[in-house]
Amino acid sequence: MRSYINLLRTFINFDRIKKYVFMKRILEKLKLGKLFLFFDFLYYSMPVKTSIKTLIEINQLDLSSIQTDKIDYTCRMYMSHRFNILGSGWIASDFNAAPLGINGHKYKVDSSKRPYRDEKILKLVSKGYSLIDWQRDLKSGYLFDIKKLSTDIPTKLPVGVDIKMPWELARMYHLPQLSIAALSMKNKRKDILLEFRNQVFDFFESNPIGYGVNWNCAMEVSIRAANLLIAYDIFTKQDKYYILDEEFKEYFTKKILEHGRFVLRNLELSITTNKNGNHYLSNLCGLLFISSYIECKETKSWYEFAKKEFLKEFDKQFLPDGGNYECSTAYHRLSAELAVYSFALIMRNGEKVINHLLTKLNSVAHFATMTIKPNGDIIQIGDNDSGRLFKLNLYGEFISQELYEKQFNLMGYNKIYREDYIFQENELQVDSLIANVFAITNYRYIKSWSNKNPLEYSFIKSLLNNSAVHHNDVYNYNQINSSLIYDESISDYKHQIKTRIEFPFNDIELKDSIVEYAPHFGLVTFTLDEIKIFIRSVADLEVMHNAHCHNDFLHFEISINEKNSFSDQGSYIYTPLPDVRNEFRSIKAHNCPFHGKELNNFLDSFNTEIKVKGYIVDVTSYSITLVIKYDDILHQRKFEIYNNSITVTDISNKPFSFECTEFVYESLGYGILQNNINNTNSLVINKFNQMSTCNISDR
């Protein structure tokens, strides 16, 4: 009864926009959601006479970091309709493309589900243009039905089918990259502009609003709208050929308005828990982009709604230490990118942001620096679906056939495409985010990142239109508030294992490390030159959004120069292989003590029964002691830093095991799986009584 009363109170406090979404959600639960669809489709098709503004000054974009070989390679791939989607390799996207499959799962195409507007599309696109299979999971081969209402797309799909594949392609990350390629490669500019025009017609005529997989999730619609808009903005500035004529511009504007209306009617609010995540944040960011580019009476109301909601959600979803409350460093990057661009648009429009939020924005960037390993990658905590708002520049490297054939996700790739090398994106870089924050606040600590990422930095500066501020306040990472420390040591329990990790050199003083604490998120780092130690502490999971949480508490990693030890294995995959997903987020996938059961129970792919609680019991400049509790288990782990070694002491009231070994597999991005390259490192483990010694050899 109380829950119904709370829902009623929530409904009363909602504004008109949220009340509509609330009522629609209730009717969907009662299997009456189609009653609202009639009104939705009427709203989507309402005519409005307006146009798209320009926000980006292309002569302000710094292209000095663009590497010719990478931009030429990716441009060639995109123009031939080959895309690297979530670990797929550069696969073809035409109707007859052969799927590689996933773990042996492949599906034949049901031609009855094919787009039904082919003839109309072919009249709009250039002669010789090959249509893209937008509705297909290009990895498994499964084709979603375009004739189905998006609300009727099933949530439970056949094994191996990944709904994220068509979603990812339809986010249109590649279009801003093509617009920047056109700036760099004048000899290809006309062809690239024509490709943009063709793909816009192809997508929208193949994906009518409200039908098929690509209108199934408002987050995907939001990110797509933002990418389409900035690509359009940059392309129109280069179009001396009048390829993007008035008819196209009118068509494009109408379709972007449809995106905004769809998002507004399908906001991804968490009504029952009041814990909104990155989906809702992306909805607000998308509305801010659309309402900033298109000015009319209708979009002004969108802007005011999205601005108010965004500022509230940013403060809620990001913790005092700057970490994101979704328990993931990769989702921290995604949500932070959504936040940075939202702030830029709000400030461009003359809004003043209060100091508290600017301080938190600086803390978001500072927290991101904490997650960076000496090799430049971020540590993976929690889920990683490789999600971004934009991918303007190309971060990654070319890898040879010998290397890419070792990835399990690319088995059979060379038999189809026969390539000596491919470009593989680095899914673990966060530098561009930090540069973007500096563009807004000029936070001195992160200034160097602006020099390393000139394209993203100059892009945000152009978007801001001289509305940046100077703000240097940030969370204090050098000490932990005493209110977060609990003096409850459990040193008298009989079950103990002590592990000493020795470094391969004697001329270091680890006790001189710089220590940083992010206790609200649950991360501690010790840094000395090119050595960095990461420790995962327990946050208050009652206030967190736990859909992307792993059972990784008490996990630790060590990075020395380019080498990493005990790295989190990542996430690999979500719903296509639920059992595999659970393996990658289990205790055994992390460097943690194991008591024979999980810290938290995984109810399904994105719902977790929270059992664990934890706290810090002692902290010095060279040690930290953590305690976790779940079920009938009480476990303490103490880390002590010495000159050239670390001692990890585990104490518990119940028997447990702990192995100081490398993991067999690693996933460095969604859909990517390979043998752990660190697994061949010479790690010598000696165990005696209740003491084990792990020597990290020189690598």
TrEMBL record:
Q: Which GO terms describe its molecular function?
A: lyase activity
**Classification via SUPFAM superfamilies:** Chondroitin AC/alginate lyase (SSF48230)
| Any one of the GO CC terms | periplasmic space
Does Lyase count among this protein's keywords? yes
Domain of life (superkingdom) = Bacteria
Pfam families of this UniProt entry? Answer: Hepar_II_III_C, Hepar_II_III_N
The record's subcellular location field reads: Periplasm
InterPro entries, per the entry: Chondroitin_lyas (IPR008929), Hepar_II_III_C (IPR012480), Hepar_II_III_N (IPR031680)
Query: Which Gene3D superfamilies does this UniProt record tie to the protein?
Result: 2.70.98.70, Chondroitin AC/alginate lyase
Ordered alphabetically, the record's keywords are: Lyase, Periplasm, Signal
Query: Can you give the residue ranges of the Heparin-sulfate lyase N-terminal domain?
Result: 133-341
Outline the extent of the Heparinase II/III-like C-terminal domain.
Answer: 517-591
Recorded hits in PANTHER family, A to Z, give: HEPARIN-SULFATE LYASE
This protein's name:
Uncharacterized protein
Species for this entry:
Radiobacillus deserti
